[in-house]
Write a structure and sequence with these properties.
The complex is a heterodimer. By secondary structure, chain A is an alpha+beta fold. Chain A contains eleven helices and 14 strands. Chain A folds into three domains: about 45 residues, Uridine Diphospho-n-acetylenolpyruvylglucosamine Reductase, domain 2 (2-Layer Sandwich), CATH 3.30.43; about 120 residues, 2-Layer Sandwich (Uridine Diphospho-n-acetylenolpyruvylglucosamine Reductase, domain 3); about 100 residues, 2-Layer Sandwich (Enolase-like, domain 1). The mean pLDDT of chain A is about 95. Classes of the chains: A alpha+beta, B alpha+beta. The interface between A and B is medium-sized, with 25 and 28 residues. The complex binds flavin-adenine dinucleotide.
């Protein structure tokens, strides 16, 4: 990190976005991705380094007008401890519970997880199934400008997103899930702690009388970005679940993904796991009363 | 009125490790923490190729970088080879043979400058055809790795006793299997490093993490062209070794070359990635085992052939056949035995010594076969093993004399405490039961035993250790031992043994063990020998001091020394416990006497073992350790995930000296054995490590650690210190074998390869081959 020429630690969004407008900079929040990546040279070192941790406005979880808003700097630990989220959108909390270890959760932020854009990013999957949007802020015409886009359109490749150099992820928001929403997140790692997902599966939908009225499914680590499982969703809605149906739906999920082989698993194993996790998740959901 | 002093023993007590407080508070000085004035940073440029001729190395630009003090290549060094095969020059000049190869080194003011300089070194290579498996390397016309070994075979080993053909003829059942054991590495929490410094007279001080300081001096001397008597080795606190620091690897002489070139102290310190790339690994082995049994359950023969992937150079991994053949020949009674190993050069990483030293690999195969043979003759795994287990005072055909042998006790207590037989039968019932998603979990129980040296191993002419002991004027004892503390707890055990003789608490004892200028000779820390050998030596010195003190006290008190004892820092009457004299006072009176004297003794302990003869026969250790572990596990047949629930272990430890540290040793060993079996895997493809980080090299983490129910079989070894045997390596040895047997018990599928990572298990259960990463 010898090439860093300037260090900034802004305390407000206008301050931060103005610095970003001045030219290429590297932001860090928890630093749990960016620091290891810079150390091994996996990320080019830009001349300006910005510590964004002091922007208190970007931290916190709130709800208004039926919309849940989670600030970009909210830590994974804060999400895990949030009683409100546990109640209305437990799938996000389930993901936080599978995330890394206590120490890393204290530092790691939601914005960092999303902007790092790993296909295996754990917090992304539950937000995809909650139909989340990201809010991106930048400095335009002498004030902070904000734009929103659906999270499912945000990712363009491993480590790549639609965010522009001068933008910061200010928040993520999603509609308060409707009554009777069921949400599940399952991560498969080869060990119970401190593991990167070999695959992960998320599911959310309104379930009434043993039947999903709507459903969103997402998969992690099976494609260059986290993806929605549109075919699986279609197979799942308005279907009365039973053993055979569940196995059919799991098969749709299996056919929908086309993972790669790497040091963590082969494509064959990942595909098998998607089916296995989907099947288990649906059995479990099926057995739980609406 | 004088107080009456009871005799108190330190043996078997739960004594916290003496070095624990400084380790947990961060006060311990590791190699990272030592700062010498003017010290430079040394860094190593490694090969990007696995097999290539070095055409040219251009260091001009690197040398010109401000802040760089030296850039060295092979041309600047004597080029003498290191390691067991002396085939590994610290810096490679003609060609590179594996991914880690060292080709240049830099000493600079800062780490950043050193790293920049490395990048400025230009290397031109000419690629050579490479070879990545022993079988390929043995083919005619295979690429030659070392010119002096045109067949790529640096070593072979052959051993036999009896006549396997006869054994086979007597057998009712004969089985044969191929086993494949993988690459793993030590993962010491403290990365490797060294600091070298020359004084103005050319004397060299090395701060080295070596676990064999005296052999180190002798072996490094010709490589660096400094005579051994001019070398002083100081060991910092060592952050884990497990065998990895038994050999000398190129970074140490390189550090010394840099210090000589710059006339400044230089430190070389690995990054974690380098620690993976450039540390030794556990020896990967391809092993074919053929065994036979009579229908009454008597073993008839074992015939074993192995191929050892030696990688690019020869370190201690090449010598693991010494230990492997012991288990093949002598774990249970084997009337006829034949053993062969071919060690083969490849362009893979090379292996060193690693806790168990080949025995995890051998035991995996032997104990898998024990289960298979038992099943073939319709015996339960326990009865079959009991039937073939040796008894005390038996001598094995390889010449090992088991003066004590707790194998049968280990077998019976572990199976009894775990309810082995009932569970084993019950699990078999459910093996074939269909599994439905959601209830895909099956349970298994499996057992395995081990045999390992427990009283040193005479692989050098001496297997001894020296001690110097002095008692000061306040009855504080300094024990100067040749042996090294590498975290195994030797300081504490030595203090206990000395305290026991001198009637002093461990707080009255300081152990000095880290400076060859001060300490007497020792072979080093290996072969589970330190408690046994260094312990006996410390005890010998303490006894001499005790005799001297009692005689002096007898003279002063005008009583027969035979009637006196040392307790709680006092001289007492041994029958009544009546306190007669303070120990400190006695010593001061010796110092101030007309014929003044100090209480200072020394001892050199040499175990009554012998070196093996040319046929690898002989009683190589003064004592042998035995143990049995029963593993209970769950396997998820839908994902292949194994969860180890419980390990019931019994070890013949001779005698428990420190209950706390022996429990730690066993738990640590079980976890290491378990990591070997189900989690750890250094993935090497085409000679390159694919996962040199803790992200992708999976160590066992805390939530995975099972309950370990420990039992200690005290056989009171007549030669061991207070009856103890070495157990440093033993607990890691048979865990993997017990796990694979338990997996069979759960599923009916027999695995002959490690690691049993989820994907490999699932493929095995689905009986589909294919490649895992
Ligand atoms: C030991 C360990 C274990 C881990 N385990 C897991 C795990 O189980 N699951 C998982 O998903 N991840 C895991 N990670 C990865 C990492 O912790 C997460 O991705 C984390 O959420 C990143 O957040 P951060 O705040 O640390 O990001 P940083 O490292 O600070 O930043 C990451 C990237 O996002 C950018 N960025 C950060 N915040 C913003 C923002 N508000 N706006 C715009 N850009 C921003 C940075 O510039 C950088 O490019 C682990 C990492 C480590 C070191």
């Amino acid at each position: 990190m010898a090439n860093v020429e300037r260090y900034e630690a802004p305390e407000s969004l206008p301050e931060l976005t103005q610095i970003l407008a001045e030219g290429p900079a590297t932001m860090f929040a928890g630093g749990t991705d960016v620091v290891p990546q810079m150390r091994v040279g996996a990320r080019p070192v830009r001349p300006t380094l910005i510590n964004i941790n002091r922007l208190a406005d970007l931290r916190g979880i709130s709800e208004s007008n039926g919309v849940v808003r989670i600030g970009g700097l909210t830590s994974v630990a804060d999400i895990l401890d949030c009683a409100f989220l546990k109640q209305v959108a437990s799938v996000v909390v389930q993901a936080a519970d599978c995330f890394a270890s206590g120490q890393v959760r204290n530092a790691a932020t939601l914005g960092g997880n999303i902007c790092n854009a790993s296909p295996a990013g754990d917090m992304i999957i539950p937000l995809l199934v909650l139909d989340a949007e990201v809010e991106l802020a930048s400095w335009r015409n002498a004030c902070v400008a904000r734009r929103r886009m659906p999270l499912c359109d945000f990712f363009t490749g491993p480590g790549k997103t639609c965010i522009e150099d001068a933008e910061v992820l200010a928040a993520v928001q999603f509609p308060v899930p409707k009554p009777h929403t069921v949400g599940r997140f399952r991560k498969f790692g080869t060990r119970p702690a401190l593991d990167i997902a070999v695959v992960s599966v998320g599911l959310a939908g309104v379930k009434e009388n043993g039947c999903f009225k709507d459903a969103r499914v997402a998969f992690g680590a099976v494609a260059p970005t986290p993806i929605r499982g549109r075919n699986t969703e279609a197979a799942l809605v308005h279907v009365e679940l039973d053993g055979d149906r569940i196995s059919d739906i799991a098969q749709v999920a299996e056919q929908e993904v086309s993972p790669i082989s790497d040091v963590r698993a082969s494509a064959w194993y990942r595909t098998h796991l998607i089916r296995e996790l989907m099947e288990r998740m649906l059995h479990e959901v099926h057995q739980t009363r609406d | 009125m004088t107080a009456l002093i009871e005799k108190e023993t330190l043996i078997g007590k739960r004594v916290p490790k003496l070095d624990a407080p400084k380790k947990v508070t961060g006060a311990a000085q590791y190699i990272h923490d030592i700062e010498l004035p003017g010290m430079l940073v040394g860094k190593i440029r490694r090969s990007e190729r696995v097999h290539a001729r070095i055409v040219r190395i251009d260091t001009t630009e690197a040398k010109a970088l401000p802040g760089v003090h030296a850039v060295l290549t092979a041309a600047d060094t004597p080029g003498v080879g290191l390691g067991h095969g002396k085939d590994n020059p610290p810096l490679k000049g003609d060609k590179v043979r594996c991914e880690r190869d060292e080709i240049a080194a830099v000493a600079a003011e800062t780490e950043d400058i050193a790293e920049q300089a490395l990048k400025l070194i230009r290397v031109e290579y000419e690629d050579l055809p490479a070879v990545f498996s022993p079988a390929e390397a043995l083919e005619d016309g295979a690429p030659i790795i070392h010119e002096q070994h045109p067949k790529n075979i640096p070593f072979t080993y052959d051993y036999h006793h009896g006549d396997v053909a006869q054994g086979e003829a007597e057998s009712d059942v004969v089985i044969e299997d191929n086993y494949r054991l993988h690459f793993v590495t030590h993962c010491c929490m403290g990365v490797s490093g060294a600091i070298a410094q020359f004084d103005s007279e050319g004397n060299l001080t090395v701060h080295s993490q070596t676990q064999v300081p005296f052999l180190y001096k002798k072996e490094i001397a010709p490589v660096i062209a400094v005579p051994p008597e001019k070398i002083r080795v100081i060991q910092p606190v060592i952050g884990g070794a497990f065998g990895s620091k038994l050999d000398i690897y190129p970074f140490e002489p390189i550090c010394i070359f840099l210090a000589r070139a710059t006339r400044r102290p230089v430190r070389v310190l690995f990054t974690r990635e380098e620690e993976f790339l450039a540390s030794p690994t556990r020896q990967p082995v391809e092993l074919v085992l053929r065994s036979g049994v009579k229908s009454d359950g008597t073993l008839t023969f074992r015939n074993c052939r192995t191929l050892h992937d030696n990688g690019g150079y020869t370190s201690w991994g090449a010598t693991t056949p010494f230990v492997i053949m012991q288990t093949i020949s002598s774990l249970y009674r084997v009337p006829h035995c034949q053993y062969h190993t071919t060690v083969v050069y490849t362009n893979n990483p090379y292996s060193g010594s690693f806790r168990g030293f080949g025995n995890l690999q051998a035991t995996f195969a032997v104990e898998s076969h024990m289960d298979k043979l038992a099943e073939a003759v319709g015996m339960d795994p326990l009865a079959f093993r009991m039937h073939n287990a040796q008894q005390p005072e038996e001598t094995t055909p390889q010449g090992m004399v088991f003066h004590t042998c707790g194998l049968s006790e280990c077998l019976s207590i572990t199976t009894e405490k775990s309810g082995f037989l009932a569970k084993h039968d019950a699990n078999r019932e459910t093996q074939a039961a269909p599994t439905r998603t959601g209830s895909a979990v099956k349970r298994g129980i499996g057992m395995a035993s081990l045999l390992h040296v427990g009283g040193g191993a005479k692989i050098y002419r001496s297997d001894g250790c020296g001690t110097i002991l002095k008692v000061d004027d306040h009855a504080h004892v300094t024990v100067i031992t040749g042996s090294t503390e590498i975290g195994q707890g030797s300081e504490t055990v030595i203090a206990q043994l000395v305290g026991e003789e001198l009637g002093l608490p461990v707080s009255a004892i300081t152990v000095i063990n880290s400076d060859t200028e001060i300490t007497p000779w020792d072979v080093g820390v290996h072969a589970s020998r330190t408690t046994f050998i260094a312990g006996n030596s410390a005890r010998g010195a303490a006894r001499k001091a005790r005799d001297k003190l009692l005689i002096a006290a007898g003279e002063k008190l005008k009583v027969d020394p035979e009637t006196l004892d040392l307790r709680k820092g006092l001289v007492v009457r041994s029958d009544s416990g009546e306190s007669l004299l303070e120990l400190g006072k006695l010593i001061r009176s010796l110092h101030f006497a007309r014929k003044a004297e100090v209480v200072m003794t020394s001892d050199y302990y040499e175990p009554p073992s012998v070196m093996q003869d040319s046929e690898f026969k002989g009683d190589v250790s003064a004592s042998y350790a035995f143990g049995t572990q029963v593993v209970e596990l769950e396997v998820d047949t839908g994902t292949g995930v194994i969860r180890i629930l419980k390990v019931t272990s019994a070890h013949d430890v001779g005698k428990v000296i420190n209950a706390l540290s022996i429990e730690g040793q066993i738990e640590g060993g079980v976890v290491m054995g378990m990591g070997y079996a189900i989690a750890e895997h250094l993935i090497v493809k085409d000679g390159r490590m694919k996962n040199p980080s803790f992200r992708d090299y999976k160590l066992v983490t805390a939530p995975e650690i099972p309950v370990v129910d420990m039992h200690f079989i005290e056989t009171n070894d007549p030669e061991g210190p207070v009856g103890a045997k070495g157990v440093g390596e033993a607990p890691a040895i048979c865990t993997a074998a017990a796990i694979v047997n338990a997996l069979y018990n759960a599923t009916g599928v027999r695995f002959c390869e490690l690691p049993l990572t989820p994907e490999i298990v699932l493929r095995g259960l689905k009986q589909c081959g294919g490649h895992c990463p």
